Amino acid sequence: MEAHNENDARLVVTFFVKTRLSKSNLLAGAPSSDPFESQYQLCGATFTNLLVSLASPIPLTLLSRVILAPGVFQTIFATSAVFPDPSKLRHQASVTTFEASHGIEAVFDLVYPSSPTLGPARRPVRLAVFDMDSTLINEEVIDELARSIGITAAVSAITSRAMNGEIEFAESLRQRLALLKGVKADVWEGLKASITIAAGASELIDELRGQGVITAVVSGGFAPMAEWLKEQLSLDHAYANHLLVSPPTTAYPYPHLSGELHPEHPIVVPEYKKSVLENLARENGIPMSETLAVGDGSNDLLMLGAASLGIAWRAKERVQREAPQRLNGESMTDLLYLLGLKKHRG
Predict the structure, then answer these.
(1) Catalytic (active site) residue 85
(2) Has 133 been annotated as catalytic?
(3) Which of 67, 86, 255, 338 has its CA 20 to 30 Å from the CA of residue 324?
């Protein structure tokens, strides 16, 4: 447990007006028709009163309100280091009702400024771990692979069962992989042309690396694509599932996927994703209070919960409900506002 002075905490609430967010992925509430300035004033006053009442008896003292960009603004409070997990605020019914009614998304964070020169909202992050599919890239690799060999329906049916909780992730992965038996081992090269890097991902990673942050991708997908993405984005680490490749046979006269996972490598299940985050932090002497995790699927929830700042990015509905924080932006550079790495409007 890291020690902090009793009164050195900052509760930082970053508001995103829904008219500038991805409309296809919002859970509730119509986008507000109010101008951004009106939303800024509303959140500055009404929402502040709501938070003060929810935090009681722990005091909140308003330090500042600032517009970061059109439709993005931030309120910063001084509070006690014993302030509870800020994700509990995000899940309060009164908060979600306010968000839906007023067309905003709010992201809550608890920050302990290490230096006055950093500013009250500068979040120290030294390790950032990301999911791959539908996070750093726009596609789900296994769906693209299934489409390329004409087994989309079969793979989608298994995926649907897994998402509904009918089968565990590891079992669903094994069943989908069995359908890939006989696929040419070099199939990944053709797939790369159909993969697109998510908007803002390159800029986000460049900024994090420029700040000295260790970056990693940990994916329930496949190692060839994770390693390719690592090279594309200059990430420090990549972790994913390893598939067995079989030599040519009579039935398949070319090197081909066996349809099985490599037994000498771990399966990337939710617990493994969480352990990657924790192990990288420990190995690099980084406290968990300086970690960021970002993902979109249910297999990311444990990792998101373990990180000091865990963000469900454009996530599945269940994940948005259960994750510590969520954001539905058009560009991953929106995450920089949460880290104090985008300057406010002057």
Answers:
(1) no
(2) yes
(3) 67
